[in-house]
Amino acid sequence: MKVTIKDVAKEAGVATSTVSRVLSNNPKISEETKAKVNEAIKKLNYKPNAIARSLANNKTKILGVVLPSEADDLLTNPFFINAMKGMSIYAQNKNYYITYVFAKDGKNEFESIKEITNTNLIEGIILLRVNENDESIKFLNNIEFPFVAIGRPEKTEDILWVDNDNFQAMYNVVNRLIQKGHKKIGFIGAIKTLNMSKDRLKGYKMALEVNGLNYDEDLVIHKQLFKENTGYDAAKELLRKNEITAIVTTDDLLAFGVSQLLNEKNLEKISLVGFNNIQLSKYQTPPLASVDINADDLGYYAAKLLIEKLENQDTVNTHYIVNTEFIERESFK
């Protein structure tokens, strides 16, 4: 039979409200009463309902994460899984919970965020990406709701955020390709309004400029989704118009589509690089070179920043830049 708070109160000889105050560490309860209640809890092996306790304290210890609609099939984009893993590890260590909501039924993330903030069930939100003129950030700032963004906001003042140095990561990749002799390098991205997408394109442009190569808009294609089929279509369009020797993408899923087309056309000499270094990258034919963005660390530090704010901890950090690592494989030629 499940032990209840009434059983503890009876064992300790106090009211149930007193047990609740002990559980919430109320300073008005004497040490003698606390000891008596804690002894009863231990004796009965009572496990308090965490959610009920939190609601009684006006603190749910629940963080909300709204997943974009394309994350519906999580297995197709492991970035979300890895980021969620990092969030969960830190949250669990701090006795916080995370609830995940998908933006579905024609709703975007912004509409879902407005809904979840009205539930009174979550204390803070983790944004999984940042757009230019981001309406979610503006809304959360206006209602003074605690949040952290995975991705660099346009205005970083008084905003908690974590990100990679996307500009530098892409610059390094393109620079390495140029050093290998490539001069016609295609760029395939998606959702160009994301600050991540903009920063990676800037890195691509700067690497060309520093090496004395002209930027050619015909070599750059942006699609609407980070999916394999969109990478395939983009590569078909790119190769139809240009003679290129290398292609960089802003996501491994796009690169998988590119790789499929290159294999179909026996274009074995074209170098290909992706971003995110998801597990399936090394099993491509040929194995895909990719930039590891350490998505689990992005999630971990996002949860850390938000929980520290919720706990009113003094911290000098308002953001973290997570290191990236170029993983060279056979597609890097």
From TrEMBL:
Molecular function as annotated in GO: DNA-binding transcription factor activity; transcription cis-regulatory region binding
Alphabetized UniProt keyword annotations: DNA-binding, Transcription, Transcription regulation
Keyword Lyase: no
Domain annotation HTH lacI-type: ranges: 3-57
Origin: domain of life: Bacteria
Pfam families xrefs: LacI, Peripla_BP_3
PANTHER family the UniProt entry points to: HTH-TYPE TRANSCRIPTIONAL REGULATOR GALS, LACI-RELATED TRANSCRIPTIONAL REPRESSOR
Protein name per the record: LacI family transcriptional regulator
